[in-house]
Amino acid sequence: MLLCVPTFLVNAQSADVLKADELFAQKKYREAAEAYRLLLTRENEYQLSSKIGNCYLILEEYAQAENYYEKVMRYGQRKEIEIFNYAECLKKNLKFTDAKRWYNEAVLKDPKDKNAKRMANSCQMFLDNMKSGACSIISANKNCFTLDASFSVDNAVPDLVYQWEFDNGEKLEGQVVNYCFPGAGKRQIKLNTYDKTKNYSLKTDTVLYLTIDGIPISFKNSESPQINDLINFDASNSLIDGATITDYFWDFGDGNLSLGKLTEHSFKASGTYTIKLTVTAQSIDGKQDIIYCGYKRITVEGESYQEKSLLDVLKEEAVEREKEKKTKPTKNQKR
Q: pLDDT below 70 — which residues of the chain?
């Protein structure tokens, strides 16, 4: 028996889809997703699931987006962009093995898609890093130097004081000093001298110029974090010369992970945590995959609070009642 759908119902639904498309065009993505969802049937599952997935992907609700793109993947006519978007959702949901597989599927669909190749390589590097810790570690002391003026010591003036003056106004005294420059770029250093005993005026003997390379991996976070504070982490200053950064992977040291140049996290207990930021990149010529790791320790302060269950509260109340019974004077004690 052949069932026919009345033409007016098909036309009505098509008009409703156009209305939902208009909501999407107006960037009302949540309203559009709900409108598409209400129209979803087995007959239009491929078309509308893709549209709903697009909405949630833009809203950065990756779990929802993954669910709808997964429906799209069941169909043979799936497009390369839909495959790529599905892989993006899997990666954002930290499913790197599955994400790599679908990025490679996107490459098979379009061998010229260099971005999909980069993302597949990025996922593999994250997997290798999590398994073995394979990563080029960047020292936080890369911009620290020892400055030595002992070669120019004037023995004829035994009370001569050597003063190092930096371009940010900081000053250190001594023939040999250690100094960490606050940032990359061309920095000026003055070597001044003066004689304390004879009150000689300050004299600049030497001006040095030093070029400090940028540290590829760097990030900043909210200062003086407390328990349950939503801490902002920002890796925008990370820059790898001659390469394009593909991804930022955060390990907060408390079992939680995240992806993205900018991310947020809160800690549920006080203590010192080692934050690890792993950055993957690909050289501009596309011939080299790069992975760097940066580390930073932060201290979270405040008293830990653990929510009590009803059973815990009842037990505590019972203990308190027992204490009261023991301390309460008996009738004999009152006499």
A: 1-13, 133-143, 151-158, 182-184, 198-202, 212-216, 303-310, 313, 327-335
- Helix (H) / strand (E) containing 207: strand 203-212
Tokens standing for 14? Answer: 């098509």
Crossing angle for the helix pair 80-92 and 96-109, to the nearest 10 degrees: 170
CA 52 to chain centre: 27
Q: Which CA distances in Å does 325 have to 84, 191, 221, 233, 330?
A: 69, 78, 52, 53, 9
What is the C-alpha separation between 165 and 204, in angstroms, rounded? Answer: 10
The structure tokens 């098979």 sit at 108
DSSP annotation of 135: -
- The pair phi, psi for residue 245, each rounded to 5°, is -70, 130
CB 36 within 8 A of CB 47: no
This prediction's pTM: 0.63
Instruction: Extract the tokens encoding 218.
Output: 């760097």
Strands 231-234 and 243-251 come out as unpaired
